[in-house]
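Reopening this one. Same input as before:
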Amino acid sequence: MQLVILAAGRGIRMMPITKKIPKPMMLLKGKPKLEYTLRSLPEEIDEIIIVVNYLGEQIKDYFGNSFKGKRIMYVKQRQLNGTGGALHFCKDYLNDRFMVMMGDDLYGKNDIKQMAKHDLAILTKEVDDVSRFGRVLVDKNNYFCGIIENKNVDQNAKHNGANLVNTALYTLDKRFFDYPLVPISDTEYGLPQTLAVMVNEHEIKIERAGLWIPLGDASDIAIAEKHLSSF
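Same output, byte for byte:
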C-alpha cells in the first residue's frame, strides 16, 4: 500500500525554527520529526510518496530513495495550493488505494495499521479544545458527513455527541479524483472539504485515534518530545 506524506509547506507558525529547515525536518530529541513518522509505519505500507516544495532537497538528501525497505519517491508541489492540490500532484503515481497524512504531525502505529484496513476513512480524535482544528461531523453509523473549519465552530456546541477533530490522516482510493477540488480560499483547495462532497455517493468510515500529536507551533515541540517513547 502507498502512503502520501504532505511535506511541502513553509511552516510559518514554526518560525524562526523553519527559516533554514523544512518543518518535517525539525529536530525532536535529536532526530528529524519525519524520521519518527517513517519508523511508525506498519508493514502494510511499502511505498512512500513525499510531497515537497519548501527546502525539499533537505528531505531528499536525508532519506534518499528508501527507508527500512520501503521505497520513497518525491513529488514537487509546484504551486502551494492546499492539501487537495498537493494530492492532485501525485495522481499519476498512485495505485487504486492509498493513505495520506501530514508531514507535520505524529501518528500512532496502531492507528495507521487500523486505517489501512479501509478503502475510504478519516482518522479523528476527540479533544477538549477544537479551536485549532476542523471539527468532523459523524452520522449515527459512524460515517463521515461533513467538516466545520475552526473559524466557523461554535465552541459551546457539540455536534453528534463528540468534539471530534480531523487529524488529517486518510485512507482513500482513486475515486477521490472523480470530484472537483473544493476551494477553501482564493489560492488553496481542501482535501477534507472535497471528501465532504463525496459523502453523497460514498461511505467514508470514521476511526478514532489512540495517539495523535499535532505540531502546529513551537509550543507543541515539548509536548511531542514527552510522548516520543510511544514511537
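So the earlier flakiness isn't reproducible anymore. For the record, The chain has a mean pLDDT of 91.
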